[in-house]
Amino acid sequence: MMGEFWWPFAVILTGAAATYIWRALGIALSGRVGTDSRIFEWIACVAYALLAALIARMIIFPIGPLAETYLADRLGAAVGALAIYFLTRNNLLAGVSVGTAALVALTWSRTIF
């Protein structure tokens, strides 16, 4: 009976410990890794690759409400966002705003017409 009560807490504590061990290790090692080292370049490349993969997955294989939009609309909004991002000298806010507005406009225009 008592084992059933403590089981969820044990699972949560184990998961938290596993997460915080890696975070603590990252903090401990972060001061020893130079920003111009090869390992830092590799970490940056992996981070950019993960971000690119997540964005591609959201465009090509969306889930939730985004899955109800057309692929052409998602691609058009992404192309528009990238174009504005580069035209405004890497202004992330402008790129995201235009991409969002384009996706809303393209999706809305299909429901109207």
TrEMBL record:
InterPro entries registered for this protein in UniProt: Brnchd-chn_aa_trnsp_AzlD (IPR008407)
Show which residues constitute the signal peptide.
Answer: none
Q: Where are the transmembrane segments?
A: 6-27, 39-63, 69-87, 92-109
**Origin, by domain of life?**
Bacteria
Keywords assigned:
Membrane, Transmembrane, Transmembrane helix
What's the protein here called? AzlD domain-containing protein
Q: Which organism is it from?
A: Denitrobaculum tricleocarpae
